């Protein structure tokens, strides 16, 4: 039993002593500020940066504009053949390997709200890209739940395919000629435009206003190269995960964020104090599902799934569920382009 010690009869109160102790404790706490991050320019908060963030100074040599996809046939994927019924994958090849394993292994991330994020209530992965992966599994097994999701960074997407760590990558990935030389891509499954996110009331209204500002974007993505081309006088804060840019802007460590409008809309859905401004910074972004370069049978099968969901209304139902509210309605999914 806990003992309670009573004051001795006639003892003097100790309140004054306690106040002094508390005052010393408060002063001691105030004397230990958070470690500071050196400022690059401007008047930015000096709280520590997000783990893995990189500061990239303005450049006199911005990266060259990428060649148009038409020049390398980057949008022209492999035409689907006859789609085997679920549970009846042909022997040999990658489809038989997936069927024998009993699950489709899909590379995704968990920080892209609306597309691929972890629901805080259920702890499960949700979003447009997650539903897309489940549709592929539905066509292989007849069961959309037979998926193993593996979390990848943007930088790790392509090596995961090359090393056969995953079967497919559904990770908001823009098709480029350089990437198409490394991995196989499905036909386009989503179209986006790179724009700018700023706090409401910001004086930034378009790409021309980014000169001399700090702009957050993502390591090893086409978005970073675009910012350097369009705004070479901007300082870039490059981060590893999409949500890191939201945190950095909330901490006033960057003036703007630039990436696909769809991903920016996902950030706005988490904090309505921000808004998307300005016209697209460059041309369209064509997103594809990534597959190992040497697995043509899987590329054709994924394209068969995309053909189905375009035709039976599944794509539109997915869009209306996840994307229509922040970005508005669309006439339909992007059309397929085949090279054979």
Automatic annotation (TrEMBL):
One of its GO terms (cellular component) is outer membrane-bounded periplasmic space. The lineage of its organism: Bacteria, Bacillati, Actinomycetota, Actinomycetes, Mycobacteriales. Pfam families: SBP_bac_3. Residues 103-326 form the Solute-binding protein family 3/N-terminal domain. InterPro entries: Bact_solute-bind_prot3, Solute-binding_3/MltF_N. Residues 45-92 are annotated as: Disordered. GO terms for biological process: amino acid transport. Belongs to the bacterial solute-binding protein 3 family. It comes from the Bacteria. Keywords: Signal, Transport. Residues 60-69 have a biased composition (Pro residues). PANTHER family: ABC TRANSPORTER GLUTAMINE-BINDING PROTEIN GLNH, AMINO ACID ABC TRANSPORTER PERMEASE. It comes from Rhodococcus koreensis. This is Polar amino acid transport system substrate-binding protein.
């Amino acid at each position: 039993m806990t003992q309670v010690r009573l004051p001795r009869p006639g003892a003097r109160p100790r309140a004054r002593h306690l106040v002094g102790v508390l005052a010393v404790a408060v002063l001691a706490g105030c004397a230990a500020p958070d470690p500071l991050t050196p400022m690059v320019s401007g008047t930015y908060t000096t709280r520590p940066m997000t783990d893995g963030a990189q500061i990239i100074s303005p450049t006199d040599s911005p990266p060259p504009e990428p060649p148009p996809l038409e020049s390398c046939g980057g949008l022209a994927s492999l035409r689907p053949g006859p789609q085997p019924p679920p549970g009846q994958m042909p022997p040999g090849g990658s489809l038989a390997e997936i069927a024998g394993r009993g699950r489709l292994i899909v590379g995704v991330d968990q920080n892209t709200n609306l597309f691929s994020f972890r629901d805080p209530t259920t702890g499960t992965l949700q979003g447009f890209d997650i539903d897309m992966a489940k549709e592929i599994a539905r066509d292989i097994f007849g069961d959309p739940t037979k998926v193993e999701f593996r979390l990848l960074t943007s930088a790790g997407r392509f090596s995961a395919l090359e090393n056969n760590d995953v079967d497919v990558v559904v990770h908001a990935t823009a098709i480029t000629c350089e990437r198409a030389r490394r991995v196989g891509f499905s036909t386009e499954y989503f179209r986006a435009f790179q724009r700018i996110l700023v706090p409401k009331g910001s004086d930034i209204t378009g790409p021309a206003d980014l000169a001399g500002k700090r702009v957050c974007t993502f390591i090893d993505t086409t978005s970073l190269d675009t910012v350097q081309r369009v705004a070479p006088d901007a300082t870039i804060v490059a981060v590893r995960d999409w949500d890191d840019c939201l945190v950095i802007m909330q901490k006033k460590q960057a003036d703007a964020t630039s990436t696909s409008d769809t991903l920016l809309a996902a950030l706005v859905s988490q904090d309505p104090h921000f808004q998307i401004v300005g016209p697209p910074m460059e041309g369209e972004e064509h997103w594809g599902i990534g597959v190992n370069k040497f697995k043509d049978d899987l590329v054709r099968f994924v394209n068969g799934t995309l053909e189905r969901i375009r035709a039976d209304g599944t794509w539109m139902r997915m869009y209306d569920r996840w994307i229509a509210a922040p970005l508005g309605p669309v006439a339909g999914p992007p059309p397929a382009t085949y090279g054979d």
